[in-house]
């Protein structure tokens, strides 16, 4: 991929649980020679320490903030050393704004990829047939994912939206095209409509 060759990137891969975020994050990271920082992997390390997890788990807002901060530190470490970073999580607008500002401080490209699945049965089959095997972390169940799907708040743009009913290669091509044409969004610029 020639996404502004030589430029470092901070890419946020967000969207519905079970809609292919980790697969796309890993593939984009390979293209960019980037580190992947995953919310679930970072939080599983804290969950392995019951005395720490008891203070982090609830309320969920605190758990999210701790995870966002861990990912931000990893991203900044990579950007500081001139490398790229891909963040893999179900994101909210607040940390995305913070990460956009972080990328700008390091003059890095910034992009958001949002993963969806337009077919309910395809989504369910992806979740029910999946083992993540993250040490110390829970496996997914459809009831939890279906609830998250209903409550999910789409991120503002600019972004590229991909659909898990399409092949990984087609979705990867969309993301690569988005990165090739993306520019750093100035801080304070209002979100645009999603790219598709």
Structural overview:
The chain has about 200 residues and is an alpha/beta fold. It has a single domain, classed as 3-Layer(aba) Sandwich (Rossmann fold), CATH 3.40.50. About 50% of the residues lie in helices and about 15% in strands. The chain contains 8 helices and 5 strands; from the N terminus they run E-H-E-H-H-H-E-H-E-H-H-E-H. The protein has helices at about 20-30, 40-45, 50-55, 60-80, 95-105, 120-130, 140-150, 170-180; strands at about 10-15, 35-40, 85-90, 110-115, 160-165. Strands 2-3-1-4-5 form a 5-stranded parallel β-sheet, with helices on both faces. Helix 1 (about 20-30) crosses helix 8 (about 170-180) and helix 2 (about 40-45) packs across helix 4. The protein is globular, with a radius of gyration of 16 Å. About 35% of the residues are buried. Mean pLDDT is about 85; it is low at about 1-5 and about 185-195.
What are the defining features of this structure?
alpha/beta; Rossmann fold; 5-stranded parallel β-sheet; 8 helices; 5 strands; 48% helix
Q: In the CATH hierarchy, what is the superfamily?
A: P-loop containing nucleotide triphosphate hydrolases
Here the CATH topology equals Rossmann fold
CA-based shape: globular
**Average pLDDT figure:** 85
The domain count comes to 1
- Sheet having the most strands: 5 strands, parallel
- DSSP helix fraction: 40-55%
Spans where pLDDT lies below 50 across 5 or more residues: 1-5, 184-196
- How many helices does DSSP assign? 8
CATH architecture: 3-Layer(aba) Sandwich
Strand order of the largest sheet: 2-3-1-4-5
Report the oligomer.
single chain
- In CATH, what is the class? Alpha Beta
Count of distinct strands: 5
Rg calculated over all Cα atoms: 16 Å
Q: Into which percentage range does the β-strand content fall? A: 5-15%
SSE run: EHEHHHEHEHHEH
* Sheet/helix structural class: alpha/beta
Calculate the terminal CA-CA distance, rounded to whole Å.
19 Å
